[in-house]
Amino acid sequence: xxxxxxxxxxxxxxxxxxxxxxxxxxxxxxxxxxxxxxxxxxxxxxxxxxxxxxxxxxxxxxxxxxxxxxxxxxxxxxxxxxxxxxxxxxxxxxxxxxxxxxxxxxxxxxxxxxxxxxxxxx
Length: 122
Prior knowledge:
By secondary structure, this protein is mainly α. It has one domain (about 20-120). The protein is built from five helices and two strands; from the N terminus they run αβαβααα. It has helices at about 20-25, 45-50, 65-90, 95, 105-120; strands at about 35-40, 55. The protein has a two-stranded parallel ribbon with strand order 1-2. β1 (about 35-40), α2 and β2 form a beta-alpha-beta unit. The radius of gyration is 16 Å and the shape is globular.
């Protein structure tokens, strides 16, 4: 998603359950180094590939988050909330929030059409 225009610029789909970062790696998408990437913890490992990546820190049982880490996590989540709003608007089309029961062959086409409808409404 483009943060300025809030338009969906790239989509990728897979069959079944697949980890976010694995799907990203298999897509072959390259991100320019000057682009700032804000992700959730589903993309652990992206920082090794792309240096300009920001994601929240996770706490562990033995090491809780410091005040500064919590503050940084809140700041990142306030920037990422636009992405989550777009995902929520896409899920208004029940095709994405419920189990997909139609032929898998046309799912990608339908997803891209709905993304186009969303972009057009902006």
